[in-house]
Structures are given as structure tokens and as C-alpha cells.
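Model: Ready when you are.
Researcher: Fold this.
Model:
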Amino acid sequence: MLKKRWLIPSAFYFIFFLWYTNISGPLSEAEINTVIGRIDSGKTSISVEDREDFLKFLRQDDGGDFYMVNFLDINESPPTMEVTGENASAFDLLDYYMEYMYPELLIRASHPVFGGTVSAKAIDHIGAKETKEWDQVGIMRYRSIRDMMEIANNEIFAERHEYKTNALLKTIAIPVSAPFFLDFRIIMFMFLLSITLIIDRLINRK
């Protein structure tokens, strides 16, 4: 009976671990060339400097997860868009954008880990005066760079992304490697271990 009680949580954690962890390794050279090829085709507007920075980001892929830190300056008077219509707020535009993003993120074990409204102008912004004012900050966890690129390469993303760009006056997205960040794999392991130990103790008392 003891082994059976541990079998279910062990199997559940094994499935969760496989879903939450990229087991396909880093991007291959062919995958990188495909991404850069799409950029060079002119479908994406990007400066030469940003292209080189992005290429370096792809080549440094270790296959692990990473976090995208987003700073958002909301457009109080966004333009009229086809789907959201007249008098739509910036948040209406962002909701339409995220309507596509959330399902695509979740099936790839990617998700928000932090979001908040800025409570004051930036206190420290050395050499970057234009970064003084922001409205919101969010952090998104991606299982891998490959997962992020699969989301971005979908044709629906290009159409929805236009709503995001029109909802914002400016934005910065910075990829961050955080090996010591609180990991849901550890949280899930501790949760299942605790529940199973409690059940064992309760049964053994009988």
C-alpha cells in the first residue's frame, strides 16, 4: 500500500517535470538561421544593432528557461483598431493581444511570474532619461527560447502584436537568466512530498 500511495504523486511529478522542462536542448544552427532568415526577409522591422544583439541571444541559448522582464508605458489615447473598435482603451488592445498569448504560453509551460503597477517615476535612471516614466512592469517565464520563437512565428502573433504596439508609447523587454529564481519544479516537488507524507502519517495512525 505504501508504494502505491507514492506511485501516483511520483507519476504526476514526472509528467509535470517533462512538461515544465525543455528536453529538446538549445536551438540548432538551422533553427537560428530560419529565425534570422525571417528577420532578413523584411517581415520584421529591426535595426542592424538589434539584429546582431538578437542573433547573439539565440547563439548563447543553453536550452534552459529564462525570464523576460517587461517595462510598459501605456498609451492613454490608442488609435482605433479593427477588432477593438472606437473608444477602446490601451488595456482593451492588450487584452486582445493576450487572448492569443495566454493559451500559447501555457501549453509551453510559460507563464507570468510577476506583474505590477509602477508606484512612482524611476528613482535611478543614470544615462537614460527616457526610461524615467513607466506604468507597469511584468516578468514572463519562458520554458526555452525555442518556445518563445514558436509563439512569435505564428501568423496570428504578427496580427495581434500590432495591437500591443499601439497600446504602448514605449516598452523594453529584457531577457534574463535567473538560475536561483524560485522554481515551480521545486515548489511542486515539495508540495507533493508534503501531501504524501501527511497522508502516510494519517493512515499509519489508524
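Researcher: Now this one.
Model:
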Amino acid sequence: MGFFSFAKSVGAKIFGSSEAQAAPAPELKKEAEKHGLDVAGVEVKVEGDKIVLSGNTKSTEEAEKIILALGNSIGVAQVESNLIVAKEVKPSVFYEVKKGDNLWKIAEHHYGKGQGAKNDIIFNANKPMLSHPDKIYPGQVLRIPPLEG
């Protein structure tokens, strides 16, 4: 799937992580499982502030959520994904939240002027990592799925 960049000084604090290094692989897998993500077939390797993912997932959406759940944590600057997905669909765009952003503004930026009401699509695409539409922060990376049709 490729390489994804993250702000390593923001995000979830996972046991064993620091701003210099990602948490150990078993702790990262626990973090993904905490969000209800299936990482049984996923190998997680930590190389300092970089995470390398390999193995199999059931869908593009699941793979993207795993990348975000692990990438949006303290100490992670980059995720390299070599995941193989069983059901491939058009990938989402990854967007880094800027100061002053909200989901409405992000929806209008990605889906077009007057499309802010589609912010619920972005919120739902980032569940369970997002618990509330107003709880986003600068540096966080979100999935912006393509619109259907």
C-alpha cells in the first residue's frame, strides 16, 4: 500500500512509546485490537519511529484503519504498509488535520464547496479511532473515503 507519514509528537500514548520511538510491536497490536481491528494476520515490526506492516487483512478499509490506529500514536513518524487485502476497493485519501480544522471544513475541502454536511462520512470512516466529531486535533491523520457513485 505504501508509505504514510505521521506527526510523531501527537496521538495516543501507548505503553513503551516515547517521542523518539514507537511502542513495541505487541503493544501496537493491542492498540489496534482495542479499536476492534483484526490484526491476527498482520505482522508489526518497529524500526525506531517507523512501523512496518505485512501480512493479510480482509479489506482496504481495515488496512487503512490499522495504519491510522498505529500511526496516530506518540513516537510514530512513518508507517510502511506491505499489507495484502482480500477485498480491494478504491483507497481513501489520508489527510493531516491542521489548526482550525473541523470535519465540516475538511468535507468541503475534499468533496467540494457546499458538501460540508458529508462530514458524517469522514467521521464514520474514522470510527472507532474517533469517538466524537469535535474531537480531532492538529497533526492527527484521518481517512477521507471517496464518495460513492
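Researcher: Key takeaway?
Model: The longest helix spans residues 60-71.
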